[in-house]
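Per-record layout

source: Astyanax mexicanus
name: Zinc finger DHHC-type palmitoyltransferase 7
length: 248
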Amino acid sequence: MLGKACSAVLLLMLGWHCAGAVKDLRPDITDQELFWGADQYDFAIVLPAAGLDCFWHFAHLGEHFYLHFMVQWVTGVAVDRHLSVIVNAPSGLVVGSVDDARGEIAFTTKETGFYQMCFSNFHNRFGSMQIFLNFGVYYEDSGDVRNQKEKEEIKKEEEKKELNSTLTTIEISSVRVQAHVFHMWRFYNFERMRRGTDYYLLQSNGNYISTWSTVQSFVIVMAGYLQLFFLKKLFETKPTTETDKPRC
């Protein structure tokens, strides 16, 4: 009986300890190290009439922050393709603003933290719009900052082992190629946004022409019908009888 009681108490203690919530999954890593790295995002959102939507992106001091946006289509009454975009620093200062149908905001970050990007559709009180976004951070000196410490250690080992300088040349060339490929990807993404805008504009014009053609055809048919109706009224005669004769 004593052994069973001790086992039950031990199980309860272990169960209570295991059921506790884990407050910190990686206590050996700081918040800045968790967010360290170059990344990019591209997606589309729909802003309602007079709507406002904001996004946040983390960046370290000295990184290159960029934001591309383009209005793809607008629906509603009295539409306006202008979009108001504001980028705020973590301290609350405005670091960039654009009021146009398409644009780019790029700068070198002066603070470490979350940068806020707000998109406002206040120009359209009765119409919504779809926006394509492309934003992120990149680094000119290195292609992958997450492995910066590992690269520094590799360089030290290479210096100690006195390796051939060909490896350094290959590494520099690969970093340059990676940077050029990344910039080509940015330009391709911007061209894709422009093509999407042209497609939606063509589709909108086609719907506009079809709608007004239908309305004009209906107006022409109704006008012809009304003309025929009034002409028949002019030649309308009543039958005469002995008691009901036409008067002058």
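summary: Residues 16 and 24 are 18 Å apart (CA to CA). The two ends are 130 Å apart (CA to CA).
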